[in-house]
Specification:
This protein has 374 residues and is α/β, with parallel strands linked by helices. The chain has 16 helices and seven strands. Bound molecules: iron/sulfur cluster. InterPro entries: PAPS_reduct_dom, Rossmann-like_a/b/a_fold, Sulfate_adenylyltrnsfr_sub2.
Length: 374
C-alpha cells in the first residue's frame, strides 16, 4: 500500500483548532502532521492559541515558511511580499497575500506525495474552502455530513457513472433496502434534478453507505483515499456546528481564541447611553481587509499600536478599505457613527434571534478566505 500523508492546517482560528482536537480524540491512530503558515502579522491571541493547542495535542505544529529568513530583510513575511508588490495592498479583488503566504507555501510543503488534507469547514456553513489544484492532494471535511470535496461528488454523481454507482450500491446495501436508493441513483442530473438534490437524497438514505460507496469508487481513481485499505472517517456521521466547536475547545482546556472575548462599548443614541458588545470575529492578520468596520474600531481601542501599525501601510494612495482611510475611520465622530450603526443593527437582529453573537460570527464567515480563517 502506498504511503499516504495526512495533514491539517492550523490557521489560528477556532475551527481548525477544534478539528485537530476532535480528530486526535476520535482517531488517535491517524498520523496527522499539523502545520501553520505565519504571515508574521497575526494577533497575539492567535499565537497564544497555537501554543495551547500544541500542548493539548502533544505534538508540534510545523511552521511552513513562505520565505526563508535569510532571504529577506523585511520585518515579516507579509512585508517581504508587500515590497515585491511595490506597496500594493491586497484586497478581496487582489488577494495576493493568501496566494503567497498560505497557498503556495502549502503546496511546496506537500510536494508530490499523495496527501489527505483535513479541513475544518463546519456542518452549519455553506462554503467549500480551498481545494488544492494538485492532484496528489485530497481534501476531507470531517465536520460536515458530506465529508467529500466538490470535485469528488461531481465525479461520482455524474450521469456517465450511474451504472457504476448502481453496482456499488448493490454491493453495499441489502436487497430490501436498495429500491429507494436505486430510484435516486438512476435519475440523471439535469436542470430539474440537481447534483445537490441527488446528494441530499443519498445522504438521507444513509451517510455511512454513501461514504462506503464513495470509498470504493475512489479505489478506481488516483485519489489518495483510494490507495488506503480502510479510512475510518467513512463511519463518521457527526455534524459539528458552531456551538460544538466552542464546546470541543472548552472541554479540551484549549479554550476559544482570546479575540472572541466580548467586550463592552458605550455609545449615546437619542440622548441615552447604550451598552453594546464587540469582539473580533475571526483569525488572520490584524489589518485584514475582510474585517468589518466595528472590528477596525475594536482594533483601534483594544490594540492601538496595531491600529497605528496598520495605518503605516496606507501610503501612496493604497488603503485597506475602498471608501475611507484608517485615519478617517479613527476620527471620534466616525467611531461613534460605526458603534451606533453596529449597536442598532445587532439589537435589531437580536430581536429575531436569541444568539446574536453567534449570528455575528456566522455573518462574518460568509465572506473571506477559508485558508486564513478556518
Ligand atoms: S488574513 Fe486577510 S490579509 Fe492576512 S493573508 Fe489572509 S486574507 Fe490576507
Amino acid at each position: 500500500m502506498a504511503k499516504i500523508r495526512h495533514v491539517l492546517g492550523i490557521s489560528g482560528g477556532k475551527d481548525s483548532a477544534a478539528l485537530a482536537l476532535y480528530l486526535r480524540r476520535l482517531y488517535p491512530d491517524l498520523e496527522i502532521d499539523y502545520y501553520t503558515s505565519d504571515t508574521g502579522r497575526e494577533l497575539d491571541e492567535t499565537y497564544a492559541l497555537i501554543e495551547r493547542l500544541k500542548s493539548a495535542l502533544g505534538k508540534d505544529i510545523t511552521e511552513i515558511k513562505p520565505i526563508e529568513e535569510n532571504n529577506t530583510n523585511a520585518e515579516s513575511n507579509f512585508d517581504h511580499f508587500l515590497e515585491l508588490y511595490g506597496g500594493y495592498l491586497p484586497s478581496s479583488m487582489a488577494r495576493w497575500c493568501t496566494k503567497k503566504l498560505k497557498l503556495e507555501p502549502f503546496e511546496n510543503y506537500i510536494g508530490n506525495e499523495p496527501t489527505i488534507s483535513y479541513v475544518g469547514i463546519r456542518g452549519d456553513e455553506d462554503r467549500e474552502g480551498y481545494i488544492s489544484k494538485k492532484s496528489n492532494v485530497q481534501s476531507i471535511f470531517p465536520f460536515r455530513e458530506n465529508i467529500w470535496s466538490e470535485d469528488v461528488i461531481k465525479k461520482i454523481l455524474s450521469n456517465q457513472n450511474i451504472d457504476q454507482l448502481v453496482l456499488l450500491y448493490e454491493r453495499a446495501m441489502e436487497v430490501k433496502e436498495l429500491e429507494e436508493a436505486l430510484h435516486y441513483i438512476s435519475k440523471p442530473i439535469n436542470t430539474s434534478y440537481t447534483q445537490k438534490q441527488k446528494l441530499e437524497a443519498l445522504l438521507r438514505i444513509g451517510v455511512k453507505t454513501f461514504n462506503q460507496v464513495v470509498f470504493q469508487f475512489l479505489k478506481t481513481t488516483d485519489y489518495p483515499i483510494g490507495k488506503l485499505n480502510s479510512f475510518p472517517l467513512i463511519e463518521n456521521e457527526d455534524i459539528i456546528r458552531l456551538d460544538d466547536v466552542f464546546q470541543i475547545l472548552e472541554e479540551s482546556g484549549v479554550g476559544a481564541p482570546g479575540y472572541y472575548n466580548k467586550l463592552d462599548y458605550e455609545v449615546e443614541i437619542d440622548g441615552e447611553n447604550k451598552k453594546g458588545v464587540y469582539a473580533r470575529s475571526r483569525s488572520g492578520c490584524f489589518f485584514c481587509f475582510y474585517q468589518q468596520k466595528i472590528e477596525w474600531v475594536w482594533l483601534l481601542e483594544q490594540h492601538p499600536q496595531l491600529f497605528e501599525k496598520a495605518k503605516t501601510y496606507e501610503i501612496d494612495g493604497y488603503t485597506w478599505m475602498q471608501e475611507e482611510t484608517l485615519e478617517e475611520l479613527s476620527q471620534p465622530e466616525r467611531v461613534i457613527a460605526i458603534k451606533k450603526e453596529h449597536y442598532l443593527r445587532t439589537h435589531r437582529e437580536q430581536s429575531k434571534s436569541d444568539n446574536n453573537w453567534q449570528d455575528d460570527i456566522l455573518a462574518a464567515e460568509g465572506v473571506g478566505c477559508a485558508s486564513c480563517f478556518i
